């Protein structure tokens, strides 16, 4: 499929451009694009132990292309707004383990030269990315100012954002946020108030 997209790029590029712009405008992500077929691949050890397998997901190529474009935009945005620190080496183009080793070596050398003790701790969080609470991630994006086009993130009720369920309750929630933004000249709703996260969770 990837080879087909590459070979037919002159024909398919304008079509995909229209589809992607339509998705960004309407906020409707095709359901088939989020479905995947998981193939278990043995990493090592006993074949009868499920923990020894790694799941490889086969996903839609068009959907992956779309999310790649979104990721590129978010990467550029985060770089321009200094969202990520220089200490973040993972999952960033141009950064790697050698950068982390160099930084650690520099800190050790600096401590040795000044005659100070140096303590270092290595922590490996198992399935850290798989266990992130979506609501906390959602709130983090809101605070950073990441919004959508038709449905700004901070206007969208959680059930509408997560499950695509638009109800009277979610409409009232969104309209309430809109009213707050209008009366506060576009500031983040309930900014600085301790009940803001709770108001979203209990909505």
UniProtKB/TrEMBL annotation:
GO terms for molecular function: ATP binding; protein kinase activity. InterPro entries: DNA/RNA_pol_sf, Kinase-like_dom_sf, Prot_kinase_dom, RT_dom, Ser-Thr/Tyr_kinase_cat_dom. It comes from Mytilus galloprovincialis (Mediterranean mussel). Pfam families: PK_Tyr_Ser-Thr (PF07714), RVT_1 (PF00078). This is Protein kinase domain-containing protein. Residues 1-203 form the Protein kinase domain. It comes from the Eukaryota.
């Amino acid at each position: 499929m990837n080879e087909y997209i590459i070979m037919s790029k002159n024909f398919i590029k304008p079509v995909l451009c229209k589809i992607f712009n339509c998705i960004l405008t309407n906020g409707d992500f095709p359901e088939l694009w989020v479905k995947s077929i998981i193939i278990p691949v043995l990493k090592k050890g006993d074949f009868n132990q499920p923990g020894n397998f790694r799941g490889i997901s086969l996903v839609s190529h068009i959907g992956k292309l779309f999310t790649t474009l979104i990721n590129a935009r978010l990467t550029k945005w985060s770089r321009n707004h200094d969202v990520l620190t220089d200490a973040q080496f993972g999952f960033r183009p141009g950064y790697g383990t050698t950068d982390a080793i160099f930084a650690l070596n520099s800190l050790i050398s600096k401590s040795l030269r000044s005659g100070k003790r140096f303590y270092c701790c290595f922590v490996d969080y198992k399935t850290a990315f798989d266990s992130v609470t979506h609501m906390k991630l959602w709130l983090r994006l809101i605070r950073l100012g990441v919004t959508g086009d038709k449905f700004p993130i901070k206007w969208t009720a959680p059930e509408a954002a997560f499950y695509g369920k638009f109800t009277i309750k979610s409409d009232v929630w969104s309209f309430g946020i809109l009213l707050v933004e209008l009366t506060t000249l576009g500031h983040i709703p309930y900014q600085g108030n301790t009940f803001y996260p709770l108001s979203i969770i209990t909505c």
